[in-house]
Amino acid sequence: MPLFWWSNDVKAAFKAAEGIRYSDCYEVWGMKRTGCVGCPFGKDTAEELRLMHEYEPQLYKACMNVFGQAYELTDRFHCRRKKCLPEFLQLTLTGEIDRNSP
Prior knowledge:
The chain has helices spanning 8-18, 24-27, 45-55, 57-80, 87-94. It has 102 residues and is mainly α.
């Protein structure tokens, strides 16, 4: 069953019972989302990538390696709709920010 259907209380109880520790992106830096980390279809993908780039560079590299092309395609789609992605992601896609190094 997807976690989407679980209440926050049930999620917290499961996390405590199983000793689960979230990434610092969520525990320390306050990222909020539903879905997979770095999902190219997420609402705040560019902000998530910016935080990962700064605080968890290995996770950032992994996301860029797995989803890099999807970020580019999503960006093209949004730009056709006149809603281009935020500057940080634009700089990453154009290579001004190296996707393989923090």
